[in-house]
Request: fold
Amino acid sequence: MITVFFYEHWQFYSSLLFLLVVAHYFKPFWLLLLGFILAIFSVSVHYWLFYKQPELEEEQLQAVSIEARIEKTFSDDYLRIRLTKIAEESLPWYRQVFANVALKDTTNKLESGLYVKALAKLNPYRSRKNFDSFDGELYAFTQKLHYKGQLTQIQSFSTAKANVITVYRQWLWQNLDGYQLSWLYYTLLSGDKSQISAENKQRMQQLGLSHMLAISGLHVGIVYALGFYMSQCCCFFASLFGVRYSQLNDLNRYYAFAGLTFSILYVLLSGLAVSALRALLMLSVLVIAYFFARQIINYRVLLFALCGVLLVDPFSVLNPGLYFSFIAVYCIFSFVRMSANKINAKHFATQLILLQLILGVLLAPLSSYYFYGISVSSLITNIVFIPLLTFLLLPALALLLISFLCGFTFNWFALIDEAIFVILKQLTELLLDAGWLKTQPFAWQYLVIFYLSILLFTHCKVWRAIAMIPIVMGITNAISEPQIKWQIDVIDVGHGTAVLITVGKQALLYDLGAKYFDRFSIFERVVKPYLEANNLQLSQVILSHQDNDHVGGINELLAYIGSRPLNVFHNGKTHTSCNIIQTKFAQILTVESLWPSHVMSSDNNNSCVVKVSDGHYSLLLTGDIERIAEQLLVKQASSKLSSDILLVPHHGSNTSSSNEFISAVHPQIAIYSRSYYSIWHLPHPKVVERYNQASVTQLDTALEGQIRIKVTKSGLLIGSARKSHQFWFL
Reply:
């Protein structure tokens, strides 16, 4: 894990040095050192063979010939393709290189499964990076999504040869489409979540049933049991027709082998998901141990499975499913070991509820960290759905598959579909709103401290006080953190602006970011989730001016909270310049609008310029004002412009940031809010040089991601999303 997360960082080298020194004096540590070396080798090989982005010159990226297979269509003009040839260089069969591309010409309707030859403009995949939000770049890395761009010219296209998994999934969806919960059945039988809507995915998460959507030990175990008992039935019926078996043959071995074969086929068709691979490896260890009459401790089976998963793909440690899967199984093993003498049929229901409670407690920190909430309804929903899944749904789906293969037309499964739909609907109505407890974001270090303490407490029986060490360290770290008076977050919205100022849970928002293609709102996708994750109350909103990259999310803002936050600076209206006023925010900040004092011909120069100050530290927000407005501001309010932090006017355009303006503001820190792939090539080199000459520290959302400045009594604490979530491979 250190190799995956911290390779080329100080944590990696310090760990290696520690093991080298300790192994020199204590021979048992040689095994740890050898394991570390194996991890380095495994991670390096996997990265270079499977994950490393193909190296292309910049001119090749802007005009390159490609051959690719269309994997997925998001819309008529936006696709995901798997590249097989780039610039006359064929990619080896084991390399998966994907790209999200737009179509310049949509006259030809392209569908998944087609093979295309085209000219393309490509850029290495890069996305917005913000705190407490979905990490698009990390997801793209794990999915081997290396590029995004545009297909400028389609030269030819033809039907590509589909692989077995694709054919199976297409056939499966065609047969299942029409059932009320077809998306659920399709996911259970294929492991593919592409047919689940965002609404259904969120509903299952809040009901505590997300694990049903991932092929896990429960699913693999049921398939194994089906294979085991089906082979047993086949042997029984064969014996009725006169087939005799030698007494020397242990038929249970054949049944176990049949069950394992069914499980392997199921996991392969599901696309080798982490949880499915873990379950299959554990099952394989147990079956092999049975064949050779060996007894293996449960924990060792789990460790074998973990080693197997990490050898197959060490980068699976980036997948939250790995932690949910292994921690849940570890919890079950521990519970069974401690309750081995107490479990009986009489108290089975009580034991099941107790196990569910323990699982809920142990998995709650993970759920809180990844999803910013805990499903308190999972106790009820899992007690209902796990027996349904085990004894009804998966066996019925297995029979349904057989009926599809045999061509049966009697739709007997519709009754089961209706029953499960009604149960899920009732649970949703009763538990969805009350059953999801929202939590606050926290650092990953506290997650590690929690599980390390649990591990030490359960396994260090002699010195259980050792488990208190990480807890004390976590509490000490939390207490020692400086008290924050107020906080500035320049959110990474690409080309545009969205600045959030918070005092406690009160928030003031300056601009909303852009809206693209009349359907992708930055406010709805980035700003709003951040507000909800941190439980912030949006008290005031200031709109700098009417350009799309600043107020594109206005409709989404009104739908989210109404026009009340616009009352102070815009009289509740959305298309007016801001009022020139001075007001208090959260009782400790003075918010003063300095411009526009009169209407100008340029919309940029009508931007609302706002100064936020606590009497000691101050921030100047400038919108898109240009040189003319800057000069008027310097003459009109020169004494008020001086600020410690400056949001650079017009995203760093050369039409702004004049020397006179920079001199009047005299900032310590200047922040550019802009996109990485800027068609305007911002910030302009001359602007950068002017700030350099004034000895101003320059920060850039395109390079830093979301920029966070915490204002404390002792000074300014500067952080950025990219540095806090920095990986050596991105």
Remarks:
- The chain has a mean pLDDT of 87.
- Residues 89 and 727 are 29 Å apart (CA to CA).
